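Tutorial, part two.
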Amino acid sequence: MALLIAYEALGIRRRTLITTPYTFIATAAVTFPSSKVSFVVVLPENACINPLETIEKAKKDAIISVVRIFGYPASVDVICENTDISVVEDCTQARGAILKGKRVSSYGDVSIFSFYPSENMTVVGDGGMLVTNDEKIYKYAPMLRDNGRISRYVHTIAGLNLRLNTINAAIDLVELKYLD
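Running the prediction step on this input gives:
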């Protein structure tokens, strides 16, 4: 659901998603029916998205979803340096990884982390986290996650109910203490 929020915050309904086919189905499936998905090949040395092919396919109406596989930090730096296209980083399998002196999740417009039970960090149930340094996304994402709500009885957009329950959130807060 963090991917869905990230994509929606970046306007996926009017854009094409460029991503890798070597990922969990949610990377492409959580787009909206009107969205288009374009796959690029992966690099044989790390199974991550090919940055040069991604740059070639990038158009102004695209969103690039970069997935880290097996802890490898995909070359998102090359993509971000050579395009001005919105980038979503899926950092689930590369928590704490560093790419050229920066943590993964610090290159793109939005980064997400899954806390599904089989991941290397979990909330003992379904959950996820979205991080961004874009103020517009920072304000929009919580509204979308909480039924479009800006205060108790005031809703400004048609949102979804994607809130993490209190018990799962408490488990995650304890786990986050061990991640530098």
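The longest helix spans residues 135-145. In part three we will examine how such features are distributed along the chain.
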